[in-house]
Amino acid sequence: MADYTPRFVGTVTKYVFVESPTMTPSALALRAYEVSEGVMIKETCFGLQVTGKPEEVDRLIRRIREFDPAHIFVKDRGFPPGDPRRCRANLGGARPGYLGHEAEFPLLRYVSHGLEALGKGGGAAPEQPAERREKHPLLDIRKLKDLIEEAEES
Amino acid sequence: MAKVFIYPATSLILSDLVARFGHQPLGAALSIRERIQTAGVESPPLQITPEEPKKGLKYAAVEVPSGVRGRMSVYGPLIEAAEAAVIVTDADLAFGCMGCARTDELILFSLRSKDIPILEVEYPRSEEEGVRFVAAIRDFLANLKTEETA
Predict the structure, then answer these.
(1) Which one Pfam family would you cite for this protein (chain B) (predicted)?
(2) N or C: which end of chain A has fewer CB within 10 A?
(3) For A10, how many CA atoms within 13 A lie in the half-sphere containing its CB?
(4) Cβ–Cβ contact A137 with B under 8 A
(5) In CATH, what is the architecture of A12-120?
(6) CA B47 to chain centre
């Protein structure tokens, strides 16, 4: 077993996702660089990864959120950017993970709408209770039979 | 500022909303970061060493598979530190192998048996649900502040 010497000790890394009709990840990166003050920024297809001392990263995140408050989302990351165990440059293929982000990304627009609506409307939530969603409706056996027959015919 | 455990522990939406409304989200990344930044024995990809299932004995019995105990060594300290929790009940993304599935059950059981305020919500599937989702989390977190100051 080899010894392990960690890099970037004492830093935090955060993902910044932008899902906005008015701001692209590259535009966000340009504006973030202007206020970075030494925090390491990595531009990605979905936004940024920022790495630095906790208080510096917090300051940068506060500034970044101001650009488009309802459409910028932030979360912690365990690994620093470019870590050889996770970076696809070393793995020689698609990077593992991101499945959770992929699952949540289509829902961000509803959350953005909620943030905007509550921000504009004085913060009152709608009165009527949410209808319970039917949980995982089962596939009808006749429908399944039709699908099998269709597949066999084609 | 309260420490709020989020489930799924990797959720971007929950992590963002909890931080946005002024609290500290407790997610998987914090435990992973702790391991990644601690010197020791090289154990890729997540620096989970053979010591972890032993630490997991605090949260699960010895006959529980080591996979569950290893995972609980990541989540257990976060659950211990949690002062509140937000749970998404229809999170399909939290599926996984038996180790992940049983760990998830144990996480939810541990949270529910702990005497802390818990909010259970479902992911929004429309704009209207989005408003309710954000409002529910915002109001829950605002009440935490009141409870702390009371």
Answers:
(1) DUF2112
(2) C
(3) 3
(4) no
(5) 2-Layer Sandwich (3.30)
(6) 19
